[in-house]
Amino acid sequence: xxxxxxxxxxxxxxxxxxxxxxxxxxxxxxxxxxxxxxxxxxxxxxxxxxxxxxxxxxxxxxxxxxxxxxxxx
Length: 73
Fold this sequence. Notes:
Layout (H helix, E strand, L loop, with lengths): L1 E2 L15 H12 L6 E5 L2 E2 L6 H4 L8 E4 L6
Parallel strand pairs: 1-4
Antiparallel strand pairs: 2-3, 2-4
């Protein structure tokens, strides 16, 4: 995972997991709540309900995290 600030961290998660599950797993490493994150892969904003498998995210690939509007906003 790579944040817009330039920091990076690794996450291990099953490829069948949803984007929402990935956000929840990234919350600690990114310092952003799951509802504040926007994940971007290959230039596209990832949708919470789709799986990582559907996006073809594999080992060693980079997903970018940017701060988005929270669901409460």
